[in-house]
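Workshop exercise sheet. Pairs work together: one partner reads the sequence aloud, the other fills in the structure field after running the prediction. Swap roles for the next sheet.
Pair: D.N. / O.F.
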Amino acid sequence: MPARVLDGTAAAAQIREEVGPRVEAFAARARRPPGLGIVLVGENPASEMYVGGKVKSAASVGLRVDLERLPTTASLASLVALVERLNRSDVHDGILVQSPLPEGMGADAERRVFDAVSPAKDVDGFHPINVGKLVQNRATLVACTPAGIVELLERSNIVIAGTRAVVIGRSDIVGKPMALLLLHRHATVTVCHSRTPNLAAITSEADLLVAAVGRPAFVTTQFVKAGATVVDVGITRLTDRAQVERIFGEGSKRLQDFERRGSVVVGDVHPAVEQVAGALTPVPGGVGPLTIAMLLKNTVRAAEERAGRAGGAG
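Structure field:
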């Protein structure tokens, strides 16, 4: 029997519906909507697409959203200065700097920029203060993708407490915060990565498997315990027909999609896993929509907390 589909699109719509009244209530109290400042450096096509989706979603729930652009040639100092201006702004409650940054800014540019964002406005949850609070299970602004995954699991009535969970991937953006969120919900958590020996032997014992490795169709049926819940964080756009055919098979619907569009988006989990798993997030339509929904939720939360600390409007 095919796995139950965990519908991230539907869960994200629920989150947006819940955010709407909070936006209205805040606006009535503060006499302004919660504000989000998004910074985009350069002209990366993927970043343009992602930012466009964030701007549209934020506006749809009534947030003020301002897109600040810098050219590819901008210096790191000019980017930090822009972030510091947004830190001082009374109308911006959240700040998001879209990654990746141009290579010319330097190898440690993202870390330096994320460190420059005020922790109170860090709606991405990347600032070391917010990460430290997450370790202690007292964070309010948590990285959007893992926070969205937890929302999806809980809204889908997937049991976390007492389960054995395995996270493939140790990034600061997904893997590490994902492991902490599951640990705080009483799962027994193992984090695997590129140097983990006998990877499939470990993952095949998991009741809950989160794949965030960035390699298309990497997680095959041998990685998955029968009946396990599998969360696919990966998203890769394939443009090679042979690779698409190898993953999905001749005559498959996804191959037909490729023939029409010239590309197809796939996750880290091989499509055959749906015949083994008990529940599975699709790609697309799984984790992706939740990331943006949690950005909106974090922005409203940041606005409420700033207003609370100020004793009135932020």
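Discussion prompt: The chain has a mean pLDDT of 96. What would you look at next?
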